[in-house]
Amino acid sequence: MTKALPALMAVSLLLAGALWLALAHGGNHALLWALGAALGFTLYRGAFSFAGGFRQLLAEGRGAGLRAQMLMLAILVSIMLPAIQAGTLAGAPVRGIVFPAGIAVIIGAFIFGIGMQLGGGCASGTLYTAAGGNTRMVLTLMFFIAGATLAAYDAERWADLPALPATSLPELIGLWPALLGSLSIFLLVALGARALEQRRHGAIEPIFSKPAPDAPRRWPLAVAAIILAALNIITLWAAGRPWVITASFPLWGSRLVAEIGWDEPAFWAFWEDPTRTEAFLRPLLAERSSVMNFGLMLGAFFAACLAARFKPEWRLPWRHCCASVIGGLLLGYGAVMASGCNISAYVAGIASGSLHGWLWILPGLAGNWAGLKLRPFFRLDR
Q1: How far is CA 47 from the centre of its chain?
Q2: In which region does residue 376 sit, left (phi positive, over 0), alpha (psi from -120 to 50) or beta (all else)?
Q3: DSSP notation for 195-250
Q4: How many CB atoms lie within 10 A of CB 244?
């Protein structure tokens, strides 16, 4: 019974949160809370990590994580791209995540990529591992938020860097060329990752079958990818836009700055932008990405409790702590500067047909490669 208490507590918090949100902000917010919880549960059970997938590819020549990402993106693009172009999904109005593509995206994605390898995770990975009991990732998350807040404060330095206007590929070249072109790229990347792994290791790690016996509770990567894609599509329908994570991080940090009295973030250029002002002024739990992020963390906490793996380790090597601090700051600053993270720019951007999502990929991978070269200094084993 004692071992079941954390799981029961997680369920109680999830139910109480859903009920409160339904009463205070309506059923849609309760649904987003539940979707966040399902995303967190799936990420944890599938150990679905973008940072880990990039690290395995670049350092070990293993392509399972990248192939699972391509599977998820193929499902998303096939359904979300036509829906966003039509402006409706199952009767609900929807829009994509389309931002300018320019120097800020390139620099921000590169910085974010370094942060992924030093901090130990991406945006989704940081949330679900921190909630799952990884204390180093709690530290990364704290400085992730700090870095995002610093980028918001510093927006006047980078917001006017040269950029192409917000460009939707379906509007530029047509829906079918954009859709078929995207699917072709995903297939080529998956086949390339498979060929690299075959050449380096002589065998291919499966993504559709169960993983190694030492991780009996983990779902196959393909199962997690398919479920994550389905939850992304439902999020598009429920929220009216794709799943995003880091939009809430500068908000959390700026609210804290205002509460402490360090500054007045409402007068920062970042929050004076008409597209962000409303989010800053409304109650925190009325902001949809915050609702989903909190739900995601509770869902991951519940999954960790069910797996009996919620075992925080409070004694951390100082080098690991330094890596989390530096990595977190880079993650936060890079995500805001690039108009998104691995979810908001890479996944949501590409699924929306945004040029900035495609532009994010190469500098993001280059940043991951640079971060890998720095990991030995901090004695990060992998």
Answers
A1: 14
A2: alpha
A3: HHHHHHHSS---SSS---TT-TTPPPHHHHHHHHHHHHHHHHHHHSS---SGGGHH
A4: 23
Of the candidates 258, 269, 323, 313, the one whose C-alpha atom is nearest the C-alpha of residue 129 is 313
CA quadruple 341, 347, 350, 351: dihedral sign: negative
Tens of pLDDT along the chain (382 residues) come to: 566 788 888 899 999 999 999 999 999 999 999 999 999 999 999 999 999 999 999 999 999 999 999 999 999 999 999 999 999 999 999 999 999 999 999 999 999 999 999 999 999 999 999 999 999 999 999 999 999 999 999 999 999 999 999 999 999 999 999 999 999 999 999 999 999 999 999 989 999 987 665 555 689 999 999 999 999 999 999 999 999 999 999 999 999 999 999 999 999 999 998 888 888 988 888 999 999 999 999 999 999 999 888 888 888 999 999 999 999 999 999 999 999 999 999 999 999 999 999 999 999 999 999 999 999 999 997 5
Task: Return the beta strands (E) in the chain as ranges.
Answer: 88-89, 92-93, 101-102, 163-164
The CA-atom distances, in angstroms, between 254 and each of 88, 135, 229 are 33, 24, 31
Phi, psi dihedral angles at 360 (to 5 degrees):
-65, -30
Q: What is the DSSP string of 322-351?
A: HHHHHHHHHHHHHHHHTT--IIIIIIHHHH
Bridge partners (DSSP) listed for residue 250? none
- What is the rounded CA–CA span in Å between residue 297 and residue 131? 5
- Lookup result for tokens 């078929």: 180
Q: Alpha-carbon dihedral of residues 26, 32, 38, 44, nearest 10 degrees?
A: -130
Predicted structure pTM score: 0.95
Of the candidates 258, 381, 372, 277, the residue with the CA atom closest to the CA atom of residue 320: 381
